Write the structure tokens for this entry.
Amino acid sequence: MPRLTPAAAIASPVVTAATLGAVRRAAPRVFRPVIVPVLAAVLLAACQSAPVTGRSQLLIVPEETAIASSQTAYMQMLSPLQKQGKLDNDPAVTKRIVTITERLVPHAINYRPETAEWQWSVKVIDDPKTVNAWCMAGGRMAFYTGLIVALKPTDDEIAQVMGHEIAHALAKHQAEKMSQTMAKQVGLNVVGVLAGPKFSGLAMQAANSAAQVALTLPNSREAESEADRIGIELAARAGYDPRSAVTLWQKMAKVSGGSGKSDFLSTHPAPEKRQEALAALVPQMLPYFEDRSPRPVFRLKPVTFATARAE
Ligand SMILES: [Zn+2]
């Protein structure tokens, strides 16, 4: 059982039996006789190619829904931390993380131009015991100070962490995990609800819960490889040494062998061959890293808690 982040401890109970029962009951009875053809049609429509790598992925939950529900999940997670004074406490650390992230985002937008409209932002969470970082669907990111305490990473290694996280969002992995979560927890009937012309309120409610749960679920091996492949390139194009992807995972392995308290490793399972696979990508990435052209910068969006409603 992976150790959950503090936020996950709050988020997980949101999907209750009552919620799930309500969603099941909400599926119209008349739907049952046609569930199989409709399900087949939905699954066909939901089977898409992942951006960038073209891997086939099942997306019952559309990316727009993942982004909308991530916004709610984000505010629910970060508003209490803001009140407790745990965000962006060390200006030097915040500047470091923001600077690196602002160099990565332009290349994410190059991969998927429509993401220029995302709410790209990053918050540093003052939590020295948590080794973690994430990027939600829609570009909202967080970086935990425990990652600096445990790994003492170079800027290049931090860029690998953030590049990897951004890659998960670019490749729609959160929508994919939400789809899996909903399929498993809510049952097939919800697919009928989702098949309607619009997401119903109950389906949306379930999606909101799934957005939080999905953040704490481990990624699949395929999703991890995909994020590694995209992340190392984002970092190299932003001017960060691709060889640091290998040293980062060497450090991660040491943390995992020690206290074993890495939230990052619980959501990012590390296949044995990961370092080798990243090392094999290095020669192909070095030209991007060594390119002397000016590196573009994307100014991150400010996060305002006062105007946002956490429902
Ligand atoms: Zn990952």
The chain has one domain: 6-290.
